[in-house]
Amino acid sequence: MKTLFFLARHGETLWNKQQKLQGQLDSPLTEAGLLQAQQLAQRLATPAINRIISSPLPRAEMTANIINQTLSLPLQQHPALIERHFGDWQGALISKVSTHPDYNNIFLQVTADAPPNGETGEACALRFKNALIEIAEAYPQQTILVMTHGDILRCFLAQINQASANDELPLYANCGVSTTAFDHLKQSFSISGTLQA
User: Is 14 annotated as a binding residue?
Assistant: First the structure.
């Protein structure tokens, strides 16, 4: 028995465009972000998705709502799908925080290192994994669109792909989608692939 997840990042936001770290703060979708959400809705019109579960942050909620104008599915929120907490780095330009001596360990890899007063990549990945298991157990054998955030997806997928601690991990594109299946018997995830733009 398996539950299939489409894991999607929200559309482009103002702070994405300005190269600022959002974390658990928020900024509005840009015109490009609104268009990305509409285009993603069209790409998701064919798979037999049963429901949408979104992060409660407004940028993810807005993207999910735009997609649901096309899909018309049950839509709910799950608090654990919220983005990684970047602590003191939230709202800062990436160019500024990238000079921090531990920036690579914190932001480009999944480690036990955290931004000042923030969340580690390992803790973020575990939080997301536990949320997906909880969702899978509530809706077994369904196909679920999860609308969430770039860094939490990067951290989770790196651990599923068993990336080493030294691997520099790519950023997750706005409205990018990966698919993963949760095997209820094995209590494990496998990567199914990506949905191309």
Answer: yes
CATH number at residue 28: 3.40.50.1240
Could you give the number of structural domains in the chain? 1
18: burial class by Cβ within 10 Å (0-12, 13-18, 19+)? exposed
Q: Is 78 among the residues known to form the active site?
A: no
Catalytic residue among 61, 78, 83, 119: 83
pTM, rounded to two decimals: 0.94
pLDDT (0 to 100) of residue 197: 47
Active site residue 10: yes
11 among annotated binding-site residues: yes
Greater model confidence, 125 or 168: 125
Q: Is there a binding annotation on residue 157?
A: no
Asked if residue 50 belongs to a domain, the reply is yes
Handedness of CA 159, 141, 54, 67 (dihedral sign): positive
* Any domain includes 194: no
Query: Given 10, 78, 85, 149, which residue is catalytic?
Result: 10
- The range of the structural domain enclosing residue 75 comes to 2-176+184-189
Question: Is there a domain that residue 63 lies in?
Answer: yes
Helix (H) / strand (E) containing 181: strand 177-183
